[in-house]
Amino acid sequence: MSTLETLSFDNAFARLPDAFYTRLPPDPLPDPYLVAASPAAAALIGLDAAELARPEFAQVFAGNRLLPGSEPLAAVYSGHQFGVWAGQLGDGRAHLLGEVSGADSGWEIQLKGAGQTPYSRFADGRAVLRSSIREFLCSEAMAALGIPTTRALSVVGSHAPVRREAIETAAVVARLAPSFIRFGSFEHWAARNKPAELRQLADYVIDRFRPECREAANPYAALLADVGRRTGETIAKWQAVGFMHGVMNTDNMSILGLTLDYGPFGFMDAFDAGHICNHSDDRGRYSYKSQPQIGHWNLYALGSALAALIGEPDAVQAAIEESYAPSFEGHFMDLMRAKLGLARALPGDEDFVGETFGLLQQQHPDYTQFFRRLGELPAQVDEATRTAADAPLRDLVIDRDGLDAWLALWRARLGAEGRPDAERQAAMRAVNPKYVLRNWIAEAAIRAAQGGNFTEVENVLACLAKPFDEQPEFERFAAPPPDWAAGLAVSCSS
Fold it and tell me: What is the predicted pLDDT for the residue at 104?
């Protein structure tokens, strides 16, 4: 394992031409202090967990001290925001420090909130403690749920004031990813009619991350199809766990299919397919039910950018249509079967999953608790014991007759497999989390941290590292939202 001083940096992205970025150091953060750090993320880059407790750690990951070999830069990109072309964007408050080799592959380290860059567009280049804690916790929670995501190493705070809707305090979150290249990175060069730079970027992605695409007859079409498959899988996992990204702009879409840029995200409480987690999204473009469609739309934006490399328009369309929808639909059905305790695919499953979501929309139970409690129920009941046996789930709904009718269908479908209850229930517990990062949980940790108490951030991190385990010591995090959380809202400033 490495110390801070012995982390071995490479800087592959920095070897691209200067047009792709601006080299500049982070802005120093006054009097930084450590809020939280993830030992699991540290392990990815081979950093000894003991290093997290060193005073130097906060200095390094506030951006105040550069490690040997680091070459900080801010990348340029463009993108569509809420479906409208926004033109040039870029890392307006992020600095890429470089790439560190890990156990499996290289991980780029990026400081978010580390000060102004040429791409800040009149902004201050800072992040606030509130949003940094949310991104830190959700990045690590999503990884524990098995969802492709960027990771978060640490949150470092400061008492330096930052003006948003009100005066808040500054923070920097250290993010990890194999690459932070986005759909908008390609849109940037296409919009500027720079085919040489577009090709350089595509070749960089293929050669570093998707070398198998080089063997295809059309490597750039193969790259687009790969992005389509990975994006479809990731969004299927979002839908299955009830996660809403909140701001699926093309500049927030990872070319590697990772969940990228945690801002106004949310996990579903009472189920509503039309739920909008982003208070800034007044038209519901990024509602829960719209996410699969928006993923498709964004891929066409990427395909349009890559069209000059791919050639025939039909090849662009084929790369998208033959990858995204089949990937999304296949993964989503597999995930929903697993959540329902079904071990194999049978005719009629799609209809049953549709009926399941119809029930959820009618009854509005807590999404996470519904599937977790469903896994507790027996596959066979008699009329005398049915009400008591089904009580954990019936307590979540008002129309219990409607639920009972659905449960009869569910049990009939289980009967087609005949799996022993103990085996099925264990399998359901392994895929239906008991704990997710609900907004109220994040907010409680944030409020404590704003008062100087970071223990609750640590507790939430520890709990969400094992979302499928019972964890009696964290039972409070499985409770329904408290009354004070009813008015919580997150927006693009969150």
Answer: 64
CA distance 386 to 363: 20
Q: Is 25 exposed, middle or buried (0-12, 13-18, 19+ CB in 10 A)?
A: middle
226 tagged catalytic: no
Burial class (CB in 10 A: 0-12, 13-18, 19+), 344: exposed
Three-state secondary-structure class, residue 457 = helix
Q: Is the pTM of this model over 0.85?
A: yes
Catalytic residue among 251, 261, 281, 390: 251
> Rounded CA gap, 470 and 466, in Å?
9
By the 10 Å C-beta count (0-12 exposed, 13-18 middle, 19+ buried), 235 is classed as buried
Give the torsion sign (CA, 223, 224, 229, 235): positive
Query: What pLDDT score does 482 carry?
Result: 87
Yes or no: say if 44 and 176 are a contact pair by the CB < 8 Å rule.
yes
| Paired sense of beta strands 9-10 and 94-101, if any | antiparallel
Q: Dihedral sign for Cα 278, 279, 281, 285, please.
A: positive
Confidence category of residue 102, pLDDT binned at 50, 70, 90:
low
At 481, is the pLDDT very low, low, confident or very high (cuts 50, 70, 90)?
confident
Q: What is the pLDDT of residue 369?
A: 97
